[in-house]
Amino acid sequence: YVCIAMEALDQLLMACHCQSINLFVESFLKMVAKLLESEKPNLQILGTNSFVKFANIEEDTPSYHRSYDFFVSRFSEMCHSSHDDPDVRNKIRMSGIKGLQGVVRKTVNDELQANIWDPQHMDKIVPSLLFNLQHGEEAESRSPSPLQATEKEKENPPELAERCLRELLGRAAYGNIKNAIKPVLIHLDNHSLWEPKIFATGCFRIIMYSIQPQHSHLVIQQLLGHLDANSKSAATIRAGIVEVLSEAAVIAASGSVGPTVLEVFNTLLRQLRLSIDYALTGSYDSGVGAGTGSRIIKENEERMFQEAVIKTIGSFSSTLPTYQQSEVMVFIMNKVPLPSSQHSIEPGKDGENRNRLTQIMLLKSLLQVSVGFQCSNMLTALPSAFLDRLLSAALMEDPEIRLFVLEILISFIDRHGNRQKFSTISTIGDISVLKLKVDKCSRQDTVFMKKHGQQLYRHIFLISKEENNLQDHYQSLYSLLILVSIELANEEVVVDLIRLVLAVQEVAQTNEENLPPYNRCALLALGAAYLNLISQLLAVPTFSQHIQEVIQARQKEAPYLLPEEVFGEKPRLSKSLDRLAPEVFFWQSKISEVLGGSGYNLERLSIPYIPQLTDEDRLSKRKSIGETISLQVEVESRNSPEREQRVPAEEITYETLKKAIVDSVAVEEQERERRRQVVEKFQKAPFEEIAAHCGARATLLQSKLNQIFEITIRPSGTISAAYGQSQSHSIPVYEMKFPDLCVY
């Protein structure tokens, strides 16, 4: 009888005209509510089906008094059904999801009806859908084979829940995103779903693809806020949130960061710093050692979290336009604690560890950003302040930090993807097999090298002299030299690079720095590999011949000076490097002679490269990088060609500053007084006086104009007279043709 009654109601509902439907709906919803309250599953399902039919009817007139609170609660309850029979349980859950979908459809577009986006409703609807999605994944892993399922069984609660969630999020407006996402985050927290991260990633994939693209950054902001709120949670949970962030950023692409670009990176870098602190102190409360009441922090988990943050920084930056990537790199570089910067270096052993880890993590982040950075104009991409800070980090004693700086420089300079072609240092016989992409050096690149070239060469030279360099350092130095030669080199730069490499050979040859045998052999091998490649790029036959002669001499007499031997798996080194024959070295005189004959700057080639430094001892001890930078600036200014033209700087003291301020105030006062007098004169003086004053000025202007006209008219007569065509009269002013720009 119930079924028949509901059938009748449904038919009435479908036949009812829009104007009179409101009178009938209240009774209908009461009946549906009664069915949903019944304990019999089939009656609950019957009630839901009727409600869904009603939800699909579009009404013209809104209803102010209709409430759907009961339906939201009851359908959410049905979504969590725990009936003993799996089939019945599935049917009840599916009915619950369909019911929620009906409520959403009925209310979402009608602002006068109950607001479905209120937290009280969202906190029931969203977790119910996620609950079914989650249990669907578990069931999926247990099911024997999806191929055995019949067509009817194919529609299951998880699929339906996903469809409903997508529909809900697709309808969310700007102001409602927050209320829709918050329950998702709470659900993932409550059910510990961040750790395996598969479900969390799946959820946010659905969210990011369902919402309108212009709202993407709101989801990212919610996730960042949640990461901050969980900053004292276990590293695995934080890593899960960060992984989800990374995925979401890739999906949202350019819409992922929104208006507050640096805020996103600031949050991620703050989490990085916190993680370093946790790993060092062993406690989530800074300054408190791992003791009673504090959870044990596993260093390897924190390291995994740090790697996840760095990867996410890369994901975000790759979605940005070039100019914003550049801003982000400057922002990260300014956070790196350097002795010369305002970030104070913490004293003591703990401080050293913290600084070192922070430097490494931030440089890793910078490397991640620079890998996806493509810019044709190096001058705008690398501002002077950024380059100074980056290169100052290259002079630090820690070999790992130096290596990161070299890698970052390489990723900036390599704009044609040539880097991978130099993965091993070797004296290759024919470089055409490398298939290098070489473009002509642009004007901006030439300006960049004019401005920063000497600074770059000096740092390459100083890094190559470090005792604790490893094979990776020499590999990176080789790549950097080659890439500068390919990407940024005009004739002048090539000449300077050859001089630089010969100076590095000199360091290994004379050994004033007391380098170990491996370092000396590595530097000599590095020089051979570079000169071999540059000689083939320049294609000057006599130059190539000299280089090949030296390489062949080394193959016979000193194979340990060639990269194939030094950088092989088992390098054989010689301790008697001081007794080598002259033919195994490249000679500056010979190179300058052969290149000078081909039009290169002979005078510049024959001058040995000496870095612009005066106090190398102070530099090598490296008490502070601040000293290094100030020293470089001082030396550069001393050696600059404009030095003679500069006037001696005025000595600035407290007195001169005070005087300047007082003078400027006095000048302002006088100006103000003059203005006041002019205004007063025009306000109070009699008309005749003002007219006389203006008339005098007009007369003066007229006399000046007459003079100008005289000058412009007179030459025309003189020129023609000079050619024998005497003129009896000059052209009147009103007949002269003036250019448009001269006519007022």
Spell out the blueprint of helices and strands.
Blueprint: H1 2-15, H2 21-37, H3 41-55, H4 69-79, H5 86-107, H6 119-142, H7 157-170, H8 177-190, H9 198-210, H10 216-229, H11 235-252, H12 261-281, H13 299-318, H14 322-335, H15 348-371, H16 378-381, H17 384-393, H18 399-413, H19 443-464, H20 471-487, H21 491-510, H22 517-538, H23 541-557, H24 563-566, H25 588-596, H26 602-605, H27 616-621, H28 625-639, H29 654-684, H30 687-722
Helix pairs in contact: 1-3, 2-3, 3-5, 4-5, 4-6, 5-7, 6-7, 6-8, 7-9, 8-10, 9-11, 10-11, 10-12, 11-13, 12-13, 12-14, 12-15, 13-15, 14-15, 15-18, 18-20, 19-21, 20-22, 21-22, 22-23
What would you say about this model in short?
The chain is an all-alpha fold and 744 residues long.
